[in-house]
Amino acid sequence: MRILVVNVxxxxxxxxxxxxxxxxxxxxxxxxxxxxxSFGAESVEGSYESxxxxxxxxxxxxxxxxxxxxxxxxxxxxxxxEGLQEVADSPVVDITEAAAMTAQLLGHRYxxxxxxxxxxxxxxxxxxxxxxxxxxxxxxxxGLAVLELESDPAAAVEAIAAQAELAVREDHxxxxxxxxxxxxxxxxAVAARTGAPVVDGVAAAVTLAExxxxxxxxTSRVRTYARPRPKRFVGWxxxx
Amino acid sequence: MRILVVNVxxxxxxxxxxxxxxxxxxxxxxxxxxxxxSFGAESVEGSYESxxxxxxxxxxxxxxxxxxxxxxxxxxxxxxxEGLQEVADSPVVDITEAAAMTAQLLGHRYxxxxxxxxxxxxxxxxxxxxxxxxxxxxxxxxGLAVLELESDPAAAVEAIAAQAELAVREDHxxxxxxxxxxxxxxxxAVAARTGAPVVDGVAAAVTLAExxxxxxxxTSRVRTYARPRPKRFVGWxxxx
Amino acid sequence: MRILVVNVxxxxxxxxxxxxxxxxxxxxxxxxxxxxxSFGAESVEGSYESxxxxxxxxxxxxxxxxxxxxxxxxxxxxxxxEGLQEVADSPVVDITEAAAMTAQLLGHRYxxxxxxxxxxxxxxxxxxxxxxxxxxxxxxxxGLAVLELESDPAAAVEAIAAQAELAVREDHxxxxxxxxxxxxxxxxAVAARTGAPVVDGVAAAVTLAExxxxxxxxTSRVRTYARPRPKRFVGWxxxx
Amino acid sequence: MRILVVNVxxxxxxxxxxxxxxxxxxxxxxxxxxxxxSFGAESVEGSYESxxxxxxxxxxxxxxxxxxxxxxxxxxxxxxxEGLQEVADSPVVDITEAAAMTAQLLGHRYxxxxxxxxxxxxxxxxxxxxxxxxxxxxxxxxGLAVLELESDPAAAVEAIAAQAELAVREDHxxxxxxxxxxxxxxxxAVAARTGAPVVDGVAAAVTLAExxxxxxxxTSRVRTYARPRPKRFVGWxxxx
Amino acid sequence: MRILVVNVxxxxxxxxxxxxxxxxxxxxxxxxxxxxxSFGAESVEGSYESxxxxxxxxxxxxxxxxxxxxxxxxxxxxxxxEGLQEVADSPVVDITEAAAMTAQLLGHRYxxxxxxxxxxxxxxxxxxxxxxxxxxxxxxxxGLAVLELESDPAAAVEAIAAQAELAVREDHxxxxxxxxxxxxxxxxAVAARTGAPVVDGVAAAVTLAExxxxxxxxTSRVRTYARPRPKRFVGWxxxx
Amino acid sequence: MRILVVNVxxxxxxxxxxxxxxxxxxxxxxxxxxxxxSFGAESVEGSYESxxxxxxxxxxxxxxxxxxxxxxxxxxxxxxxEGLQEVADSPVVDITEAAAMTAQLLGHRYxxxxxxxxxxxxxxxxxxxxxxxxxxxxxxxxGLAVLELESDPAAAVEAIAAQAELAVREDHxxxxxxxxxxxxxxxxAVAARTGAPVVDGVAAAVTLAExxxxxxxxTSRVRTYARPRPKRFVGWxxxx
Lengths: 240, 240, 240, 240, 240, 240
Fold this sequence. Notes:
alpha/beta, 44% helix, homohexamer, Hydantoin racemase (chains A, B, C, D, E, F), 17% strand, four-stranded parallel β-sheet
């Protein structure tokens, strides 16, 4: 089975981190193909960048020349999953939803710890749309920018664990979700600090995607995610 | 006062229709500048096309060389408004929300009549996110594609009025919203058939935008719609 | 165009303040007629007073002898809008809803800062009924009585700005709504303190009302706000 | 124990019907005092009439010269309960809420069958505010005006039972609430037709009121329903 | 009238406390029969114990040899009410719901003060299912185990009153609900400390049950709470 | 990896069907151990039976003498999952939630088709508690009893497919969930009839459980699902 794991930003080292997490979670026999979009921002921390990322991810998947069995969109709280479902030849799993579902299997309420304060409402919006907000106790910001996660991992663990502890103690969360594709390597350290299970979205999404493939299930074409109708486009897709 | 009214698709005749509606609704002294995106689909009827439109609209506004006072996003149920709020220098009004707010001022519940069945969930999602779903009685599809609205206006009135009547009688709507930027010219005929007020989103958005400008109010930069952070982009924006 | 702006209490100086705000927001050519009810409390700070005000406002509008184009109910969080829609000959805009809608166009969440703690639940109830509660981050009380707003404006600014700052910082509001018809003059000072847009309901309602009139839209008579049925009344309306 | 049961309209025969229902439901030793407002409409079927009734009921209770232990507001879906709680010296029970609570004790979902279509949204609004809408399957209109209930009881049973049957079969109601103070006498006949328990609001409210009195509980004065603050009123209350 | 009041745990002294509270709330002529389950935990403080209690309560009622008019399930936030409604020959009132309904009649919002932190989500779940969560301001834990309520009543009052005061001040509750069947004796002391009405579930349930019996209403057999279908059971019910 | 799949009823042939479905969905190397409770009803079609099943499933898992890695509760819409999470040594997956989550990954809305009308509200309640109701379009009953699924599979396919088609056409479902543990073998036939993906809960739960085990995640012990406190039990657990 081949799963495309698509980074939402154009920072290759981030793609490498995501790929490593995905491979660690995958079953034997699952091939992880990690893709970096050909255009877009080095990190995604707001709606403008996220919308550009949404189409960049779609184009990356559309341009992928080989067959594949599932797609994982590896950006937390980003736009685009609905469009990707229309154009991908396989089921699509967004890490935002995968992490929330996994968390809901483990505790009564979960909290998300993310990067900057400004991305909190984006994540809340995604969970609301996905029908997964009811059991979300809170979305908390660590105050770190996406790229700081890589540049200072020790500070990242500290900042994230501090918010995770507040989520458990004050917001009554019982499970912590790491709210950024680049936080994957930090799960163990945060779990040790909080005593609560910690869910990484990339890992969660890979196992959900594997499950769908094994069950032979794919995106419904009945209405919302039907294939795009034939259309005349101007200036799109971009020439590669 | 200058208001940019941005079509979401690349069909120029549709831009002209939208511009005419906007001008009819505008106060004396308001200049309507109608923009057509430089890339994207001839009509937007699904999430893939809508995501491409979202960034195309943003780029159109970013590329506009003159000052402006407000932006109207003239696609019903489309993505992108949050990103546009980050990059525009002025308040942004989405016709989906403008029509819903206007309808809520006129009756206890409203219904939206749109084009194809597949766009119904997109509109429902936009209203949910906007916090305007509670008083929405239903979103109904007329079964007409966007471009058919132009090619056969008489059939369009018939199909839309039939659904509007069902909305009033069966879904207990008291106001009807025309759920497509291209339906503007049909309001009067549909109102005559249903006895209910009929709201066109483009007209509603223009008056709301004018109101914001008159009140001196613009997008909050406090958190969600703060200006994008400085970032390194790859391959974006597109060369014009 | 003539807009009736109706104070909910019987304090004439408050009517004058409201009228001034309304005129400042109105377009050239709009005539603002400010009405004071002929009966009721000097200030409205609870449900008993608010219900009396509701009928007093309706009677004031019913007794107004000239034609008019729209009615603004200028009390924040008060009862009566539904009845006023039945009896008025024009569209009706309640400042509670007008401010919330305007705020929703400007930021992801808004907070209301009102007068006394006891009026908070009344405002929450009005927003819930109006279908505008989802994006309300909080309703906060400044602790000032309505009439204190007039008697000590400097203290009022201080108390309101303090709550507005808490709303932005702790409740994640991005827009502040002034939750009392008599707070209009304070918007600029509160905006300066919080860095967030500040919406005054009277000004917002006037622009929304103007918009409805320009669009030729009025209250739906389909069901909820149909004209009252012919009835025999005892002792009502009050002899003028 | 003395319970004031206050009709919302000025039709004395309706007050008599309500009084009879209340007495049939009351425990031995409970005195039912039925009040008719001194002003207002002969029947209440819309918001204008309902707001007038709200203050008329409050004034009737305020003018009542003897002590009392509880107040029942005997109009289904009407305004005013919150104000009445401020001014009454005892707990207040609204028949809309009493019937809904009682119905919720008996089945998974309940439906309300009321008079005219135009009153349906008023009832829905009251249930929403009361926090009792979640388990309401539907509010259905029989098409009968309030006063027709008295003039043709056989037709009333037929029309109400027909809607009750639809509520059970199509809306999945398991309990039926009679949504008008004047429907009390019809409960048995409707129950026989539907096989579902039928709840009359007046009877339900009397038993709830008795329970509160026996438990020594009364309206909280902590915030929302605190006593009105001392105020200067103009032209109010009406001279008796 | 005979009401079965069923303790959910197997501690006889707790049954005695509950019985005393029930008798104090009952009308003259109401016989209270307090039952202790024949199996289960000495106190119920989690879902495993609560599920065992649910079936133990059902079996206790099924085994009761005499006729009865109503059943009160006297455990706060416990499972089982839906099953009990199927097997009991009379209406069933759960103290969780009875207290919430009673509280809603007295103030705009109520809070529950319960025992251990781990039972808070169980109570929240029960209120959500019952459709009574909307007006619940908070569920707070006193930190006391169920059996500590008996062993140190003075500390219990202190711990509960402290949380009740926080509920009123910080969560905007206006009524306090005692969230444990064993807290009944503490209502007066907590009310004195908070100034808010305090509702005990057992007392509230007894008066609601009496009301249903007086009105001749019982559980709907239409769908959800229809009698169990004839079935072959293995190893159940337990031999007495 | 060893997964316990626990039937909720005592019909061994049903356990065999469930085991076969679970094995078909499991990865190589996963051992499925199917358990039948030692007490309870031959089929579970109501709350009384479901509560007995809840404790029977818990006791079956507690009595299982070997180590295991995950537990699947194989009854659709049944009680007990929260208690099982407290007592099981591993993550627990309920088929009701597993199927809903899987369906949400595949389409915008899903519907459940279950057995008898009386079980519909039980399923709705479980989805509400699980926070998975928002995207549920409907729960529909086929009218077949649980044991009829086995006795007449052809009629079962027909009845279920008919409701599934209505769900897609009238309720706007895009994915169909089979709402009974015993429906597993029918997925293919129903999918062929509706054109929509069909999700079987047992298969979905096995893949979710495998994923949790692979990720090393288990039930949070932070609060709700902490281990039961040490307690004195009377007459429980049942002697084996």
